[in-house]
Specification:
The structure holds 2 protein chains of 2 kinds. Chain A is mostly helical. Chain A contains 4 helices and 2 strands; from the N terminus they run H-H-H-E-E-H.
Chain lengths: ~110, ~220
């Protein structure tokens, strides 16, 4: 992904959530964190579709954990944000801040 | 001795559908995540609630996976679908032609194979027809690498839409009269078998690919 390319809204949310969760970022925790912080009902499929896209853009990396019995013997897939992903988040943040700056309707100071 | 209650199990059909539509890597973690949340909900809110949640999440997950699969290399998927559609369109009369050609080589009333003749006439055409659909499904699934189910289901829906459109053209203004109905039912049944055959072709290719990928990963 080039530095000029912006993240989509949900991509942005997912990247921030993965950053926030650190070593514990996998499907279930990401979904719960998004629901708790944004009060938005998201499906596991939406999260994986987005994470797969972000991985293809090299903004996140994933690794498989060990299978556990409470998951029916299936593995967790842990995600972490790459350096490229961090700079994409920063870039999108800067762009959003710049757009919101000075807008009286948002109560932002110029 | 007290008997331990058996652990709650998620709805099988929903889990099977997710497994069917997701790639091998996706299925491993998505089904694991769904199972983990299901176990948590079953213990905190009850099994009925957890099952309802699982079905709803599975349906949403399938929709997202299908949409995502359609957006990856859409041109290539369109080519696979077009090829499958043309193949199924131009080979539609093939089963009948094949069986009739085979039967013409025989004289039913004067040889010892009369029963085989009748059997071929009754069951041969549907059998060749479903084999044809299976092969078309396999071809489309082979082309749609990693998106076997999405491609074959899309082709089946496309074919179903064509059939509905044709029926509307024929009977849109004048509904079928009584003598047509006995012929219409077998026609619709054979078309339905065709559509199912295409999807089964996708399932076969998807499973074979998944099994060979698992074998490769294990070595």
């Amino acid at each position: 992904m080039s530095a000029r390319e912006h993240l989509g809204e949900f991509e942005h949310i997912v990247l921030l959530t993965v950053l926030r969760l650190g070593d514990q970022a996998y499907g279930v925790t990401i979904r719960r964190e998004i629901e708790a912080r944004t009060r938005r009902d998201v499906s596991i499929g939406a999260i994986y579709a987005t994470l797969d896209r972000l991985e293809a853009k090299k903004l996140v990396q994933s690794r498989l954990g060990d299978p556990t019995p409470e998951r029916g013997g299936r593995s967790k897939r842990f995600f972490r944000v790459t350096a490229q992903g961090v700079s994409a988040v920063k870039h999108t943040h800067r762009a959003l801040r710049s757009l919101a700056e000075g807008l009286a309707v948002l109560g932002s100071s110029s | 001795m007290t008997q331990q209650p058996s652990p709650a199990r998620p709805p099988r059909l929903a889990a099977w559908l997710v497994d069917l539509l997701a790639s091998r890597e996706q299925a491993e973690c998505i089904l694991g995540d769904l199972r983990e949340e299901f176990s948590y909900l079953a213990s905190s809110r009850g099994i009925a609630n957890a099952r309802r949640w699982y079905r709803l999440q599975s349906a949403k997950t399938i929709a997202h996976l299908a949409a995502a699969a359609l957006l990856v290399r859409p041109l290539w998927l369109a080519v696979a679908l077009l090829l499958g559609f043309l193949l199924s369109l131009f080979s539609a009369g093939l089963p009948e032609q094949l069986i009739v050609a085979l039967l013409r080589t025989q004289r039913p009333y004067s040889n010892r194979h009369y029963e085989a003749y009748v059997w071929l006439l009754a069951y041969g055409i549907p059998m060749v027809s479903i084999t044809r659909s299976l092969l078309i499904g396999c071809v489309v699934a082979l082309l749609a690498r990693g998106r076997e189910m999405v491609a074959t289901i899309a082709l089946s829906l496309l074919r179903a839409a064509t059939i509905v459109w044709l029926l509307f053209l024929f009977f849109g203004r004048t509904p079928p009269t009584r003598p047509v109905i006995p012929f219409l039912a077998p026609f619709l049944f054979s078309r339905a078998l065709d559509l199912i055959g295409i999807v089964i072709g996708g399932v076969i290719v998807g499973r074979v690919r998944s099994a060979s990928a698992s074998r490769l990963a294990a070595t």
